[in-house]
């Protein structure tokens, strides 16, 4: 097996979206977010969202104060970082990032997205249908790449050493 680069993960996500009739995936900070682009943003109360349309570039909508860190982590990955200022409407930025076809289509929204953001998205996208993003991300994350397999093997070896040492604690 070979390690699946981040760009390949986005390609695989788009194929899974097509198979499931999903027009875009909208993911806030979570394990799925990190899985897709290799970045886990700081825990802010402001909207941070990865927008992956079925066609076109993915976009990362972030508060302006997070933009330098996000851009550094995204690197050469084909993800446009869109920063919003304190007086901007980040939900409108997400809506615009979707484009017309996806904005009225079936959207898979991150399972851990705060309800305040989801409710605002539903209001801003009245023609869209919503489902959970795990319908797309779960099948992807079930297949482990080399780096994930190696990390699991290291964790298992560490646990084995702990269990083996328990007998010595008597």
Detailed description of the structure:
By secondary structure, this protein is α/β, with parallel strands linked by helices. The chain has one domain (6-141): Creatinase/prolidase N-terminal domain (Creatine Amidinohydrolase, Chain A, domain 1), CATH 3.40.350. It has seven helices and six strands. A six-stranded mixed β-sheet has the order 4-3-2-1-5-6, with helices on both faces. Helix 3 links the parallel strand 3 (58-63) and strand 4 (79-84). Helix 4 (90-103) packs across helix 5. 31% of the residues are buried. The mean pLDDT is 88.
What attributes does this structure have?
Creatine Amidinohydrolase, Chain A, domain 1, 170 residues, six-stranded mixed sheet, alpha/beta, 17% strand
Output the CATH class name.
Alpha Beta
For the report, how would you describe the main beta sheet?
6 strands, mixed
What's the helical proportion of residues?
Answer: 40-55%
Strand order of the largest sheet: 4-3-2-1-5-6
Could you say what the CATH architecture is? 3-Layer(aba) Sandwich
Number of distinct beta strands:
6
Number of helices: 7
Radius of gyration: 18 Å
Unreliable stretches covering 5 or more consecutive residues: none
C-alpha geometry? globular
Return the average pLDDT rounded to an integer: 88
Q: For the record, give the distance between the C-alpha atoms at the N and C termini, rounded to a whole number.
A: 42 Å
What is the ordering of alpha helices and beta strands? HEHEEHEHEHEHH
Q: Which oligomeric state applies?
A: single chain
CATH topology: Creatine Amidinohydrolase, Chain A, domain 1
* Helix-strand makeup class: alpha/beta
Strand content: 15-25%
Counting structural domains, the number is 1
CATH homologous superfamily (4th level) name: Creatinase/prolidase N-terminal domain
């Amino acid at each position: 097996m070979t390690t699946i680069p981040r760009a390949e993960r986005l390609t695989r996500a788009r194929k899974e979206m097509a198979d499931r009739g999903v027009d875009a995936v909208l993911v806030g900070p979570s394990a799925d977010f990190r899985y897709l682009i290799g970045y886990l943003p700081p825990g802010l109360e402001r909207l941070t969202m990865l927008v992956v349309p079925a066609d076109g570039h993915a976009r990362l909508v972030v508060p302006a104060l997070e933009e330098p860190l996000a851009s550094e982590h995204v690197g050469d990955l084909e993800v446009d970082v869109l920063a919003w200022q304190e007086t901007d409407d980040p939900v409108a930025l997400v809506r615009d990032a979707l484009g017309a076809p996806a904005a009225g289509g079936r959207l898979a929204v991150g399972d851990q997205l705060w309800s305040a953001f989801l409710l605002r998205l539903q209001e801003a996208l009245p023609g869209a249908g919503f489902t959970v993003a795990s319908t797309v991300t779960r099948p992807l994350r079930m297949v482990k790449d080399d780096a994930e397999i190696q990390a699991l093997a290291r964790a298992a070896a560490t646990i084995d050493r702990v269990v083996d040492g328990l007998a010595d604690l008597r």
